[in-house]
Structures are given as C-alpha cells and as structure tokens.
Amino acid sequence: MITRSTINSTIKGKAYEYACVLSLADLLKGIRPFEIVENESLRIAKIRFGEITEIERENMLKSSGAGIKEIIKMEPRIIEDGTDLLVISLQPDTASQKYGDIRDVLIIRCAIKWEIGVSVKHNHAALKHSRLSHKIDFGSIWFGASCSKNYFETIKPIFDNLSKHRLNRKLWSEIDKETVYVGILNAFRDEFISIDKNNENVTENLIRYLLGSNGRDYYKLIHKKNRTASIIPFNLYGTLNKNAGSVSPKISIPSFELPTRIIEFAYKENSKTTLILTMNNGWSISFRIHNASSKVESSLKFDINLISKPENMFYIEVEW
Questions:
Q1: Which residue, 13, 106, 122, 142, is most buried by CB atoms nearer than 10 A?
Q2: What is the per-residue pLDDT for 212?
Q3: Coil, strand, or helix at residue 320?
Q4: What distance in Å separates the CA atoms of residue 114 and residue 16, rounded to the nearest whole number?
C-alpha cells in the first residue's frame, strides 16, 4: 500500500544517496582528483536532500561519512595507487528495474578499469521487492529453471479474479485478501520446493539472485535510527577487497558458504502473509507478500528479508 510513510521513506532514501556522494567528496578532497557525474539521478537526490530537515541532513552526513570511512578501509583503491581521476555517479532506478543492478552509488577509476558499487538503504534492509503475477515466471528469473504449467494453472484463477476487481476499481479493504494471499503463497511454496527437487543449485542461485547485483559485487550501507550504520560486503564474485598496488586493505573480508539444501519452508508462526525459508549453512529468508497499493492490482509484491546468515558472513556496525 502506498502511504505517506512509504513516500517519506522514498524521499529519505534518495536523500541518503546524496549524503553518500557528499561524504565521498569530502573524504577525497586533497587526496586524489575526482568528478561527480551531474545526471538526473543526482539532481533528484539533491532535491530530496533539501526537502528533509536540517537535523536529518546532519545525521545522514554523519552516518554516511562513518560508513564510507569503513568501506575505504576495505577498498584502498579509492584513495591509494595513483592520481588518476575517480568518478562518483548515482545510478537511475531503471538500472535495478531493467538490469537487476541494485547498486546506487558507483565509484569508478577508468584508468585501471576498476569500479565498486554501494547499495544505500535508509533504515531498512530488504533484499528485494520481487513481484508475482499470472505471467511472471519467478523460477526462470530467480533460478534459471522455469515454473511448471501446473503452477500457472493454479494461480491463474486467483489473479484473474484480482484483474476483475481491478477493473471494478475495488480496494483491498473491500475483498477477502487473506484468501488471496494464502492461495498464492501455497502455490509459490509448492512450486519452489518442486523446482528445488528437480534442479541443481536452486538455493545457491536464490542467494545469488537476492544478494547479487546482476553478477556484480557491492557494499550495502544502511542508515539506522539508533545512531549506527551497517556496512555489509557482498563479495559473491570475488571482486571486492583488492590491493591498491602494494597497499593491502586494512580490513579483510572473509569468504562464506552458500546454502545447498532446504531444511524447512513454512509459514511464520501466527502469520498468513509470510513464509520462512530455512536452509543449511546458516541461511534463513522471509517472504512477506503484500499489496503495494490501496487499490487492487493484478500482481502482488514480496518484501524479502535476510533473517539469518552464516556466522562468518562479515559486517560492520559503526556509531555516528
């Protein structure tokens, strides 16, 4: 459902992207030449930064500054190894929508053909907001293994009914949405388990889909209300944490194991909207289904979150 809170969260998310750009620029001054790309994404983020309160701007700058300092400890190429131009750029939202590239801030050195990205979050840590509909083949998109004919035949009547409600301009509050949610979640869970039984590397590919950025490694930087920032490196392809010439990173990122099998896939206790996928090697994922608008739509959205992760999966909490 699109609410005032959702709109406010979007504004603050964009504002935090701009705060990250400002913090990067501040930390690079006097160290190496850099350029900030003046594109539409930067323009929008700058406007959003101006729309929040002065206290919020100060807090975002403190938070992003603390987070970027830690990233630099893991990425010495940002400040070391030459005086070539470093480029800072904000990606458009279409990069995620069209290409699955969830990185918001890009840090690029063309001279050495190197770049890293940062996915910026303001007070939330959702992995994906994937959709389900009568046409979306989640198996093909997530795992590279297509959903069955039986799955689409099962969900078609449910989504056909939603389409009728949409044409009649119904609100979710006017229909039995609980039955809709349960019907779709049951079909989704059954198909997920079936795909896993008949294909290899499904759980591994799921994590690559949820954590990866279209084959690119990145850092996630999360601004939190409790005056801390979280930095989580997702180094699935081994491109992060490289030396800058003879200079090694001050913080090393350890490797971790991806899941190889499902332990349980069941409803969250006392919930009819959320499934919990528990896998080996310490992985657990929640799938909460919800309507993205007060008006009935012909698709539904997932809020997908990482509940538990391997013990050796590295992250940092810093105070600001």
A1: 122
A2: 75
A3: coil
A4: 24
Exposed, middle or buried by CB within 10 Å (0-12, 13-18, 19+), for 137?
A: middle
Domain boundaries, the chain: 4-125+212-254+315-319, 131-207+257-308
> Helix (H) and strand (E) counts for the chain?
8, 12
The dihedral through the CA atoms of 209, 260, 183, 124 has a sign that is negative
For range 274-301, the mean pLDDT = 94
Tokens for 114?
A: 């190197």
> In terms of Cα–Cα distance, which of 76, 60, 159 is closest to 116?
76
- Of the candidates 127, 6, 125, 123, the residue with the CA atom closest to the CA atom of residue 60: 123
Give which of 4, 47, 22 is closest to 120, Cα–Cα.
Answer: 22
Give residue-wise pLDDT tens across range 203-231. Answer: 999 998 888 767 899 999 999 988 999 99
Dihedral angle over CA of 49, 51, 55, 60, nearest 10: -20
Would you state the structure tokens that stand for residue 313, as one six-digit string? 């999966």
Structure tokens at 120: 């910026």
**Torsion angle, alpha carbons of 1, 20, 127, 210, to 10:** 140
Residue 64 contacts residue 19 (beta carbons within 8 Å): yes
Q: Give how far Cα 252 sits from Cα of 76, 158, 240, 241, 304, Å.
A: 11, 49, 10, 7, 28
A 10 A CB-CB count for 68 gives 28
Neighbours of 235 (CB within 10 A): 19
